């Protein structure tokens, strides 16, 4: 009797396995394959940036369309104003952009990469963690990126009238001047 009982149990468990067997092929294996592809893709992107950072300094050169810009007289009631600076890698090596940040919380900036990809809007250092300013992108030789900059004249409240000047800074792995700085000024009225 005990022998039969054991046999029944064995058959039952193989029956349960039989029930789940199609699930293993339909759900589990595709899930593992997709997870693997995602893992490898993210890892290879991370490695490209990390390799570049680890590679150390770049001997490349660059040109900008302008270092500074004047908005002239702007009114708080008209809201945000924006300008775009262009940065071209004119050398023969990659330039690694480590961070992007601004000199004040009223000013935000983002990169528009050569392929049109946008990075997040970054602001002033000291608000939030270091990861908020990390860019980790590469400008290949010959490529141009845009630095889109938005100034909010209302950010400082009614006291924010008068002349202002703000900076946008890109930290890079360039050997000679790792920090590329852009600036703008304006006369803010009510
Ligand atoms: Cu400000």
UniProtKB/TrEMBL annotation:
InterPro entries: DUF1573 (IPR011467), Ig-like_fold (IPR013783). The chain crosses the membrane at residues 23-42. Gene3D superfamilies: Immunoglobulins. It comes from the Bacteria. Keywords: Membrane, Transmembrane, Transmembrane helix. Pfam families: DUF1573 (PF07610). This is DUF1573 domain-containing protein.
